[in-house]
Design goal:
By secondary structure, the protein is of the alpha+beta class. It is built from 6 helices and 16 strands. It has helices at residues 6-15, 26-40, 56-59, 68-71, 82-88, 91-101; strands at 17-20, 51-54, 72-76, 105-113, 123-126, 134-135, 140-146, 157-160, 171-172, 185-186, 196-198, 205-208, 213-216, 227-234, 238-239, 252-255.
């Protein structure tokens, strides 16, 4: 499957996202799916620096999970896990990313999403730029690949087209009974916002702008809704001194060359 076509790039510029169908064949997903499962089930040791995040309903004792996998919402920061890191460096994926950020590409965030059934598990509408201390926003892109079939029933991604053309909104914790740590929601997003549900098959990959409003619903099915995701930025992006703590994630050059004063030189 080739990287996004000129028509898909135009759609991305207009809507803030584009779904590349069948970017990965089913067999290519097996290693990433198995590694994610082994980690959340406790069959494999987590890599250095990796965060394995329990669901808030489990952490608060609201439910007793059937298994360790049913207790885990996601993992973050798998830069030191070779099996999962191979997703980030996959040439076909980087061909897509290069269309959006240019030839010098840095990895800035990695995540595996488990989304078990039987918990709230919602993620409010939010903008990823909130979490990244560098600019310009237009040289940052997220990629999100379905490892399982994603439907409205099991809590597929939801996006609000065109919101990438607006500002970074204030974010806060929504007034929900159960909310996973760090799942902030954008303030002032009304119920009339045009939501599009991205139903995807395994191997489909969505690329989206860091200002695009997006989130996901509950998993109302009996199975898991798993995916693997990464964020990239141009190596020429500059730090924004906003005075906020952003953690110490490693920013790695994955294609091209570093830029003086860019994010890789500050990693």
């Amino acid at each position: 499957m080739p990287p996004p076509s000129p028509e898909q790039r135009t759609a991305y510029d207009e809507n803030g996202f584009v779904v590349v169908r069948g970017l990965f064949a089913a067999a290519e997903l097996d290693g990433w799916r198995q590694r994610l499962s082994d980690i959340v089930e406790g069959k494999a040791e987590k890599a250095e620096g990796m965060l394995v995040m329990r669901d808030v309903m489990v952490a608060k004792g609201a439910i007793v999970p059937e298994s360790r996998a049913h207790a885990t919402a996601k993992i973050q920061d798998f830069e030191r896990d070779p099996a999962l890191w191979s997703y980030v460096e996959h040439p076909r994926l980087l061909d897509c990313v290069e269309r959006f950020v240019g030839p010098d590409v840095a990895s800035i965030h990695t995540m595996g999403i488990n989304k078990p059934p039987g918990v709230d598990g919602r993620h409010p509408l939010h903008q990823d730029l909130l979490y990244f201390p560098f600019r310009p926003a237009g040289r940052i892109v997220a990629v999100w690949t379905a490892l399982d079939r994603c439907t409205r029933e099991n809590g597929c991604l939801v996006v609000v087209p065109g919101t990438h053309r607006g500002p970074l909104l204030p974010h806060e914790n929504p007034d929900w009974e159960y909310l996973n740590t760090g799942y902030f929601g954008a303030s002032g997003v009304g119920p009339d916002a045009e939501r599009v549900h991205l139903e995807m098959e395994p191997g489909d990959t969505v690329c989206f702008h860091p200002l695009l409003l997006h989130g996901s619903g509950r998993n109302r099915s009996q199975g898991f809704r798993r995916s693997i995701s990464a964020h990239y930025a141009s190596a020429a992006c500059r730090y924004l001194d906003d005075g906020l703590p952003h953690g110490g994630r490693p920013y790695r050059l994955v294609r091209g060359r570093p830029r003086a004063g860019g994010i890789v030189s500050r990693a």
